[in-house]
Amino acid sequence: MNTEDPSTITRQLTALRLEHRELDAMIGRLVLDPGNDELELKRLKRRKLHLKDTIAILESRLIPDLDA
Q1: Reported confidence tier of residue 66, pLDDT bands at 50, 70, 90
Q2: CA distances from 32 to 1, 27, 38, 49, 53 (A)
Q3: Where are the domains of the chain?
Q4: What percentage of the chain has pLDDT greater than the value 90?
Q5: SS3 sequence of 30-47
């Protein structure tokens, strides 16, 4: 059983979703720049993917465990 407070998880999710959107916008701008830094772009994409995975994990914690 998970004992984390749902409101704490919700606050974390809000912050992570905001960071994910900001990274998405930053990546979009870098892709359009012909002189972009490919290494930086890869780093940002990796961070965005990590955030997506973390968001999915936290969202699953908000789903109540049902005993079958």
Answers
A1: confident
A2: 46, 9, 12, 20, 26
A3: 6-61
A4: 78
A5: HHHCCCCCHHHHHHHHHH
